[in-house]
Amino acid sequence: KRLVVLVSGSGTNLQALLDAIAAQGVDAYGAEVVAVGADRDGIAGLERAERAGIPTFVCRVKDHAAREDWDRALAEATAAYEPDLVVSAGFMKIVGKEFLARFGGRFVNTHPALLPSFPGAHGVRDALAYGAKVTGCTVHFVDDGVDTGPIIAQGVVEIVEEDTDDGESALHERIKEVERTLLVDVVGRLARNGFSIEGRKVVIP
Ligand code: GRF
Hints:
Elements: E1 2-7, H1 12-24, H2 26-29, E2 32-38, H3 44-51, E3 56-58, H4 67-79, E4 85-88, H5 97-103, E5 107-111, H6 123-130, E6 134-141, E7 151-158, H7 161-166, H8 168-193, E8 196-198, E9 201-203
Parallel strand pairs: 1-2, 1-4, 2-3, 4-5
Antiparallel strand pairs: 5-6, 6-7, 8-9
The protein binds 5-O-phosphono-beta-D-ribofuranosylamine.
Residues 7, 9-13, 45, 89-90, 110-112, 176, 179 line the site of 5-O-phosphono-beta-D-ribofuranosylamine (GRF).
Organism: Streptomyces citrinus
Enzyme class: transferase
EC number: 2.1.2.2
């Protein structure tokens, strides 16, 4: 299966996918990353793709007159690589109707909180501020809401006293350790076994 991965930052989730595919081989894992897209230049996520010899593309919102134009450009740039699955791994933009029309139902996102709690761009900080005792990460299909699509898998991470002093980055690093493993496992199973989405239920045979 062909994966296009979308990133906006350090790309450690992308790196986990690349490392798993390199270690297992494309056939055993069931998928290969054929391109990496971003909404901005100069990020480590793009460097990781370049180091792996994987084509990259950047679609910046500010290069387009309207948001819909950006959304269409992102969809077209992604479609050019004929992905079977699109994976948002730290991609920090909300895609629009055009992108979802083309990739909805085969577009997966990873979020650093236990949805439906703490959706949006600050899930780690919000869980910490709320005084939650556990948080974690969620891999889900993207729908037309913000972090509201059908959940595929979740991983739990304890919030400890020190996190209050250490701030969200320490907690986020612990979440990312679980998240990377979860994402690699889920993407591989979706690619190898196929899947169906029945309402809010995801079935991977
Ligand atoms: C991940 O925790 C993702 O869930 C969140 O931002 C982080 C991206 O990390 N949206 P990376 O770019 O994969 O290192």
